[in-house]
Amino acid sequence: MLIDTHCHLDAAEFDSDRDEVIKRARQAGVGAVVIPSVARDNFDTVRDLAQTFAGGTYALGIHPMAVPTARDEDLLILAERIEAARDDPRFVAIGEIGLDFYVPGLCTPAMRERQERFYSAQLDLAQRFGLPVLLHVRRSQDVLLKHLRRRPPIGGIAHAFNGSFQQAGQFIGLGFALGMGGAMTFERALQIRRLAAQLPLESLVLETDAPDIPPAWLGQGRQADDPRPRNEPAEVAGVARSLADLRETSLPDVIAACAETAYRVLPRLARGLGVPTR
Question: Is the pLDDT of residue 277 over 90?
């Protein structure tokens, strides 16, 4: 089945037609959607949303872009929520967590240190509870890897990956799959497309990051002053086709391989969906 391993389905952009968005995803063949939280304020929101449709799953974590407004006590609340969710079959990972060294306000020495502290604390939670992580990776690959190497393997997904082949290999060696989404569909995204075409297929998973990172076809014919198109989970079908084209292989093979990888790096996803794994 098609699996969107990263979709912010709780975002306000979907408030007016969320049920229709879910219906379109199902019609496109999407059998599962992973909804990561970004801050304390939406821990309960993503949990409750995931319960409302077949294939809905969720992750709990504090996003690096939420760190400036997060409080230290939010990490304690996160630990409590993770403990409470341990028996929930729809709870699959800790995320979205990571580091963002691209957004200007997050790049000051003090804010980088705070991001790293929240990231490290959440890796500790992943280790404590035996859970994989969904990583936000933006100009921060080497620092993310530094923290991961200090611990026993945690694994998970490096979301929207756009690093070097060497960095890709290091994440893969630590048990991570790399998320391929809308950015890969742009012809000018040469590095991402090379990664998508040349890395082992079993190291890749499909994602949308909806409502963000819309694929190339959503912007076709758009004027410069038009609002940015909204991405949605149904578009993961087109992402899969793009990946198959880049790899010059069949669409069913890509869908099957990426689903198998998603089950491998997110073991609770397979169990929650009742999917037998090898």
Answer: no
